[in-house]
Amino acid sequence: MSRKITIKDVAKHAGVGIGTVSRVINGSNSVSPKMKKKIFESIEALGYTPNYVAQSLRTHKYKNIAFFADISNPIFAQIAKESQIELEQFGYTLSLCNIGEKDIANKISSFLEGRRFDGIILSIPKEDDEELNESLSNIDIPIVTINRDLPNLTAKVLTDYYSSVKEAIIYLLSLGHTNIALVGGNKEIRPTREGIRAYKDAYLIHNRVPNQALIKNGKFSSESGETIFMDLLPDIQKGYITAILSLNNQMFYGILRGMRKAKLQYPKDISIITFEDSELMQLLDPPLTVIHRPIKDIGKSIVKILIKSIEEPEQIEEIESVVIPTEFIIRDSCRPI
């Protein structure tokens, strides 16, 4: 089945910006006759059929944004909340769709069918889904991704995992820990890749070579976190592994459950650090050392980029990604050895 020709293809063929093509299709008088002729020739050559629904979206007729994520992760629910608060200031509503981990392309297309949206906020479980990436390339409304590197989607909000993970590992190494387990999700997504890169670089700064076997990956679930912990348990009990850094809060809950079952305490038996700060992390006894992500700032940045993409489509190719800084907060869940 041949790929659907999009406005992006027309812009590339004509050697102009997407916004210029959009203005010509919408009958704007701001484009010269010579340029209009060139664009219409590209439309005819490529066999492009304008998506009039998408055009009406760009006139803000619907004032609705679609948010696609696996909302079993409570962080995405928080990001959705902060995005909605920000969107309300611009008169938009947010429609949330839980895409889970499988059959993502069909879930997204089914959700979009029969509904009208001005833009999309997106975070998917993996970046190498060819069917999904092809499907996304055929969508003619702005898409902002969260912590994902996807083909042809340049508008994105990223979290600086690297800096704080490196700082956390250096901190543990300075306390005397040499065998630190790094627990994360799918290695084919940006957050895990950046976490692993930071982990390795921190060891290099201390002139050490990390044990690759201590980099553990699984699903973003407490069950997976507990399974990984149980696999690590014999080496923890032997005193070989003395610290764990979890890149995911859901997996961390499983690590805590595994510790309880094994009757281990932190930091006495194992030092631990995790992502995401909350009142619970501060109330645990002892309070947890964490890497904090400013969820409110993430939500605001997503909306800022998305609104700009909707209101200034001619600038969409020039919109730069935003990197949100993280903060490493030291509390009492790690001990020197």
UniProtKB/TrEMBL annotation:
<dbReference type="InterPro" id="IPR001387">
    <property type="entry name" value="Cro/C1-type_HTH"/>
</dbReference>
<dbReference type="GO" id="GO:0000976">
    <property type="term" value="F:transcription cis-regulatory region binding"/>
</dbReference>
<keyword id="KW-0804">Transcription</keyword>
<dbReference type="InterPro" id="IPR010982">
    <property type="entry name" value="Lambda_DNA-bd_dom_sf"/>
</dbReference>
<dbReference type="GO" id="GO:0003700">
    <property type="term" value="F:DNA-binding transcription factor activity"/>
</dbReference>
<feature type="domain" description="HTH lacI-type">
    <location>
        <begin position="5"/>
        <end position="59"/>
    </location>
</feature>
<dbReference type="InterPro" id="IPR028082">
    <property type="entry name" value="Peripla_BP_I"/>
</dbReference>
<keyword id="KW-0678">Repressor</keyword>
<protein>
    <submittedName>
        <fullName>LacI family transcriptional regulator</fullName>
    </submittedName>
</protein>
<dbReference type="InterPro" id="IPR000843">
    <property type="entry name" value="HTH_LacI"/>
</dbReference>
<dbReference type="Pfam" id="PF00356">
    <property type="entry name" value="LacI"/>
</dbReference>
<keyword id="KW-0805">Transcription regulation</keyword>
<keyword id="KW-0238">DNA-binding</keyword>
<dbReference type="InterPro" id="IPR046335">
    <property type="entry name" value="LacI/GalR-like_sensor"/>
</dbReference>
<dbReference type="Pfam" id="PF13377">
    <property type="entry name" value="Peripla_BP_3"/>
</dbReference>
<feature type="domain" description="HTH cro/C1-type">
    <location>
        <begin position="2"/>
        <end position="53"/>
    </location>
</feature>
